[in-house]
Design goal:
CATH architecture of the largest domain: 3-Layer(aba) Sandwich
Radius of gyration: 21 Å
Shape: globular
Strand order of the largest sheet: 2-8-7-6-5-3-4
Largest sheet: 7 strands, mixed
Number of helices: 14
Order of helices and strands: HHEHHEHEHEHEHEHEEHHHEEHEEEH
Distance between the termini: 48 Å
Helix content: 40-55%
Bound molecules: pyridoxal-5'-phosphate
CATH class of the largest domain: Alpha Beta
């Protein structure tokens, strides 16, 4: 007998989230210096954090003998001001990952159902398993965008959450305003629609999802400081929703979920518009760099609205391993049923050059 015999069986069967391969692990395995490794596997910001955010976090560190403000008053007030909503409509979390967990706490149980697109963030599936509820994965359209009409058809009286990842990870596609408006006009009122907008800053056209909130529909808009703001290591994200849903999410969170340096850095990052613009510009340039290289190599790719790009290399695992041996960490896609593809986070121009060169060599060996 083992103590695991007494656990929740649906937890035992879970497969833990698989992040991109860490730099330190790769350095150890390949006997390389960490600074010689380029990680383009987790959609982080290659430009780095905003210097103002770093300074604010450092300053905040002098006070870390005390608990942070559990209500994250300053950060939530700034977010409320930024979005023209009330303080009561804001929730902050340790990354938007925690907010996905909080909304799941609020609405999921073994009788509930979740609807999401086939190609979307794996955490939704993990949460559905954790709360032991049914997860309906709706196949994407042939161009790899969300099939919103199909997602609408998948909704049942038991559906509690629908996740729309816009733009979506891991494929980088997005749905535009008109399609969203049509979906929101038809979605039944018992369903909470979560718009996961982790990558929205990188999209040239950014649909307005706040209009649904203003119209009184039950929506949760999720944003993160991990991508365009470059604060992935601090773990901070936020949700804007109705006061009612925010209250439920705030009730479900642990008391001091966003730490003191993270609160301070996020506030400073919001004020540093220049860094944000530079990050977005770097990504736009990098996308063009990869697209030109892929065209030249005759590789199909999925046009991206994000800071990563999905490219069809044929033998994804072999390409991943070959690039890894050169110290370039990419993301194999076999786990998503996209084994012929590899996902590349857009880096700085020199990092992109190094990746493209490694890719060329890898493809020769395929
Ligand atoms: C679509 C999407 N949503 C949410 C997240 C979670 O990000 P974080 O918890 O760092 O805010 C990610 C991370 O890669 C993502 O791709």
């Amino acid at each position: 007998m083992s103590i695991a015999d007494f656990c929740n069986k649906y937890v035992q069967g879970l497969v833990a989230y698989q992040p991109g391969k860490p730099i330190e692990e790769t350095a150890r395995e390949l006997n390389l210096a960490p600074e010689d490794i380029v990680k383009l596997a987790s959609n982080e910001n290659a430009l780095g954090p905003s210097p103002a955010a770093v300074a604010a976090a450092q300053q905040a560190c002098t006070g870390i003998n005390l608990y942070p403000d559990g209500a994250s008053f300053a950060l939530r007030s700034k977010l409320a001001e930024l979005w023209g909503v009330s303080f009561e409509q804001t929730v902050v979390g340790a990354g938007s990952s925690e907010l996905i967990e909080l909304v799941s706490h609020a609405f999921l149980n073994p009788q509930a159902e979740v609807v999401a697109a086939q190609y979307s963030f794996t955490l939704y599936l993990l949460m559905s398993r954790l709360f032991n509820c049914r997860y309906t994965e709706v196949p994407n359209k042939p161009d790899m965008t969300h099939d919103l009409a199909g997602m609408l058809r998948a909704i049942t009286p038991a559906t509690r959450l629908v996740f729309i990842t816009n733009p979506t990870n891991p494929v980088g596609t997005m749905v535009q305003q008109e399609e969203l408006d049509a979906f929101m006009a038809a979605v039944p009122p018992h369903v909470v629609v979560c718009f996961d907008e982790a990558y929205i800053h990188f999209a040239e056209q950014q649909p307005d999802t706040f209009r649904y909130l203003r119209a009184g529909q039950p929506v949760v808009i999720l944003r993160t400081f991990s991508k365009a703001y470059g604060l992935a290591g601090l773990r901070v994200g936020y949700a804007i929703t109705s006061p009612e849903i925010a209250d439920l999410m705030n009730k479900a969170r642990s008391p001091f979920n966003v730490n003191l340096p993270a609160q301070a850095a996020a506030l400073a990052a919001l004020a540093d518009r220049e860094h944000l613009a530079a990050s977005v510009a770097m990504v736009a340039e990098g996308r063009r760099q990869y697209e030109a290289a892929f065209r030249e190599m005759g590789l199909d790719f999925v046009p991206s609205h994000t800071n990563f790009i999905l490219v069809k290399v044929g033998c994804g695992r072999a390409v991943f391993e070959s690039c890894l041996r050169e110290g370039v960490i990419l993301r194999p896609m076999g786990g998503y049923g996209l084994g012929e593809y590899i996902r590349i986070t857009i880096g700085t121009p020199p990092q992109n050059e190094r990746c493209i060169a490694a890719l060329r060599r890898a493809l020769k060996g395929c």
